[in-house]
Amino acid sequence: MTWTIAPEPVDSPVAAALWRAYYTEVSDRWYLLHEGRRTDPDELEREIAASTGDRLAPPRGRLLVARYDGEPAGSAGVRLVDATTAELKRVFLLPGARGKGGAPLLVGAAEDAARALGAGRMILDTRGDLVEARALYARLGYTETEPYNENPYAEHWFSKSLVGGEAG
């Protein structure tokens, strides 16, 4: 079984299916934790439709799709926030693809895509309940930083240098 990771158009059916799976999981996790329920289906549809992923499209972004043994298994996106800084977005693996070594490969491919866009630093935000993501970023050399945005759901912000192997 092998992993492949390649750019994907943000409006492709594969990208749409992975976005739906990602958003459903992170939204349901938030609502289950804070309100003891899953996401309202109407809200889910509105939010999925409202966030098309255009910010991850070329020329200032990239959406990457990971395939495990040829089947879509996950995604990650990068977008330039300024001339030298990229933001990591939507890192996700389908539940059946987890634990097979794909997450570090996917983040590494996103870092390479950010470098190709001219970025020397990657930033990201995440929630406190996404403990798996926070552990992954720490393992991959990301360090916690001060908030860089006002995302109401973000509770942790990370940064990593993409030049010279330095973190932070």
From TrEMBL:
Domain of life per record: Bacteria
Domain N-acetyltransferase stretches: 17-163
CDD domains from the UniProt entry: NAT_SF
* InterPro entries for this protein: Acyl_CoA_acyltransferase, Bact_Acetyltransf, GNAT_dom
Q: Which GO terms describe its molecular function?
A: acyltransferase activity, transferring groups other than amino-acyl groups
Keywords of this entry: Acyltransferase, Transferase
Q: What is the protein's name according to its record?
A: N-acetyltransferase
